[in-house]
Amino acid sequence: MKIPIVKEYGSWAVFGSSFLAALFAGLTTRPWESGREFSGVTFLTMLGMIFLINAKVPFSSLLRSKSFTSSGESETENRNKENLYWFIFFLFSGLVLLIPFLIDGFRYFMVFSLLVIAYSILMSKEKEHHLLAEINGFALLTLAAPITYFTVTGDVSMRLYAAVLIFFVAGVIKVRVRIRKTLAYRAAMICYCAVSAVMFQLFQIPMIILIPFFENIVSAIWIRDIKLKTVGDIELAKGIIFIMLMGFFWK
Q1: What is the pTM of this model?
Q2: Are the C-beta atoms of residues 90 and 51 closer than 8 Å to each other?
Q3: Across residues 187-215, what is the average pLDDT?
Q4: Closest by Cα among 221, 242, 228, 109 to 169
């Protein structure tokens, strides 16, 4: 049996980095000193989010199918049924695992369901790989940051969400720069880094966390002939640096 899971390693890197950055940032508040029990809820929440992310694969397969019916024995119909069962399994399992988080966090995070709706609409219109859809997808993946921070500290931090989202959306633009190599995208990358610095200042986020963006600026000015896999490895390394900077300098 082939289990339909997300095989986009970049997505898992963004999710994992968002989770770890928030975990380290949350630990800087020393929640154990106030007697807060967070490890179990945080672990279950992480697993729940993993299940929900994997629900994307069977869901997108159902959306792409032009002949989905609730009955029939054709190969296409059987495949659709299998995707439906997997979607229900991932969705149900993820929501069950998220119950400890949702008991307290639902009222704070329910507004982000709009991102799920928007992404589903874009997928249904076969625009999954458009720039807007990719940014929307990253907005969903980086939700791991404020959710994890909430499970650790009991506080909602939109500053943290802004920091993580701003950082990783730069990766979406960078890939476009590497593929298109146009002056417009290169200028957009530089402008994005400048605006990011302004946003960090407005949100009172430590500017040192943006140090990895120097590579974005250099790569936009100096276009080298490197493979996308190499670009992915560079972004992964920058993600690790970002996690470390969050752990040391978040306040």
Answers
A1: 0.89
A2: yes
A3: 94
A4: 242
